[in-house]
Amino acid sequence: MLLGKMLCVFVLLGFSLTSGKLAGGASSSPSCKFPAIYNFGDSNSDTGAHSAVFVQIPAPYGETFFKKPSKRLSDGRVIIDIIAEKLGVPYLSAYLDSLGTNFRQGANFATAGSSILPGFFSPFDLGVQISQFSQFKSRTTELYNNVSSSGEASHDCVIPKPDDFLKALYVFDIGQNDLTLGFQNMTPPQVVATFPNILNRFTQAVQVRYTYTHLVFHKNPLWDFMEKEKSLFCRNSCPKNLFVLSILQQLYGEGARSFWIHNTGPLGCIPLMALPVELRNVTLDPIGCVGFMNDVAQEFNQQLKEAVTQLRTQLPQAKLTYVDVYAAKFALISDAKNQGFAPSLEYCCGTFSPVFVMCGTSVQVNGTTFNGTACSDPSNRIIWDGIHYTEAANLWVASRILNGSFSDPPVPISGACP
Predict the structure, then answer these.
(1) 377 an active-site residue?
(2) Domains of the chain: total
(3) Sheet containing 37-41: which strands, arranged edge to edge?
(4) What is the pLDDT of residues 161-170, one digit of tens each?
(5) pLDDT tens, 352-393?
(6) Which residue ranges run through the membrane (predicted)?
(7) Active site (annotated) includes residue 173
(8) Which of 32, 108, 242, 366 matches a 20 to 30 Å C-alpha distance to 102?
(9) Worst-scoring range by mean pLDDT, 31-40, 62-71, 142-151, 287-296?
(10) Active site includes 218?
(11) Domain at 136, CATH number
């Protein structure tokens, strides 16, 4: 009984948070009826992991929509929040956040600073996030079944129904940090040369070791799938204690079928990427972007798109939707004035010159205090803190990508299921 009381309570707050409206796009009644969303990514979609593990994100972050710090690196909602609204799902709780969480309709594994490859800014690279998901699925399934067998009501649990993992939407928005760190110590050709390794990590080379005993006697659902589809997972022979899975193949083996994959945005238009380069006498393009950085980002995106195309042949029962976030964001940045925004270099919170001050912090120089305060109207700025987008920009981009205009295949998110 205690287990049921702890795990099965009504959490009305989580459901009330979906009251925000998304301008434009498709109907609010998605045809796929995704019961849950599982998100993997970095600071662009972190909804609480960084605050839970490292340090609380301070005011004025969150001021526009939540009216207080919201564990997000924006003044309001990020794109994964808008996706949740569109699909009628509560905002996602961070997997790493232990307080006030509701995982009934999904979880967010994204963590600020994360990358596809390990060993970068964050210890929670994509491989770790996928491992966290696997553990989450296994543990919540066991707990849910225990609660159900005890005779207690299961409809009000704050953990997911086991059947919902198959019908959920799996969202990816990661890769930006792999490129930005490369720009710090490599030439553009050297950065491009790392792409096969990055994408190999994403689609081909995650090694997950399961012993025969673990798979069979613990009734792991991966076993039956792997036995039927050995050619997808094994290199050369195929020993029973080693299966080589890609990240998406691992999720596919866990039952995931609907994938919504964002490419990386125009990195050369991010102020804290462009402004330091300008100081080194590198000429910015007419809209204030570093051309070679955007060229590298586009090359990465092309290779990512090709990798997704190849995965479609390997995962025939899945629906993999490649989303050109780069094109949507660049369309906004290049037409900022006509869309009611200031140029992207004019970010809202914090300063770059004459003193660099991060948003929400203060710096003392020669006895003078400089504060990283916010502009008076974030709704006309594209970039919030020099790196991350404002809620207004996120809403603009989301209204374009969620209706299928920038997707391959060209389907709205409400139709991104097999």
Answers:
(1) no
(2) 1
(3) 106-108, 37-41, 169-173, 258-262, 319-323, 407-408
(4) 999 999 999 9
(5) 999 999 999 999 999 999 999 999 999 999 999 999 999 999
(6) none
(7) no
(8) 32
(9) 142-151
(10) no
(11) 3.40.50
